Amino acid sequence: MFDGGVVTYILDAIAKLDQAQLVGYIASVTIFTTFCMTTMIPLRFVALLSNLTFATYGYLSGSHAVMVLHLVLLPVNFWKLRNILDLVRSSRRNTGERFQFERLRPFMTEVRLAAGTVVFHKGDMALEMYYVKSGEILIEDVGATCRTGDLLGEVALFSSDKRRTAGAVCVTDCVLLALSEAKTKELYFQDPEFSFRVVEIIIERLLSNARQEAVGSVLRDASVPVSVATASNDVSPQVAALP
Q1: What pLDDT, in 10s, does the model give residues 169-214?
Q2: SS3 string of 131-153?
């Protein structure tokens, strides 16, 4: 419980504030609140409120630089809020359909690479994942190929060491859409359809790799010379003849 004298002192101090000072304190509270938020949509709403209160404070106090700055930031925050709301609405409309990664175009950077260009090397730090808009990319050490409509490099973004497990090189001229690690994780928490599709793709990749390793193991076992083949008539001669 606050002492009655303390409460009285605070109320008296607030009463002595002029209009500009009061708005300034409210604006300071809003900007502090944005630093405590973890999800983008609420943050953008509070940022808009912060822009309005700071612009008002600048006008009332005669701080024209503050007013102009926040009047410029106001449409920027509005545009970013509109983008994320459009994305969420689009996701809800398309529930049950295959996620279209090109809907993320406002958040992605286009990268054009010539045939033979290395996209990344094995062991590189993963700073982004890619959507293949056009072209063909070979995943070295694995022998897999990514084509138009495929994702590339998403697994490393969610690994503990953030290292590429294989290299990638363009087989043809390619157009990629890059999504940064920060934006990927922001969308992962913001858009359930996006996060579900990313998890689905990662699981598909892991299962595919496991199947390839299983087939490779069988072939390696089959290629081991069978020493008893010449000593037993129960062993088919084709077994020993396997490469």
Answers
A1: 999 999 999 999 888 888 888 777 787 788 888 888 778 767 766 7
A2: EEEECCEEECCCCEEECCCCEEC
Sequence-distant (≥ 6) Cβ neighbours of residue 198 within 8 angstroms: 151, 154, 158, 184, 188
Angle formed at CA 197 by CA 193 and CA 198, multiple of 5 degrees: 120
| Sign of the alpha-carbon torsion through 36, 78, 96, 98 | negative
The single residue listed with the structure tokens 């920060």 is 182
What is the number of H-type helices and E-type strands within the chain? 8, 8
Classified as helix, coil or strand, 109 is strand
Pinpoint the alpha helices (H) of 62-127.
Answer: 64-93
What are 6-28's pLDDT values in tens digits?
667 566 666 666 788 888 889 99
Rounded to 5 degrees, what angle do the CA atoms 102, 83, 94 make? Answer: 50
Q: Say what percent of the chain tops pLDDT 90.
A: 30
Q: For residue 218, with 0-12 CB atoms within 10 Å meaning exposed, 13-18 middle and 19 or more buried, which class applies?
A: exposed
CB 34 within 8 A of CB 48: no
Contact (CB, 8 A) for 140 and 167: yes
Tell me the one-letter amino acid at 51: N
Q: Which residue has 């990662």 as its token pair?
A: 202
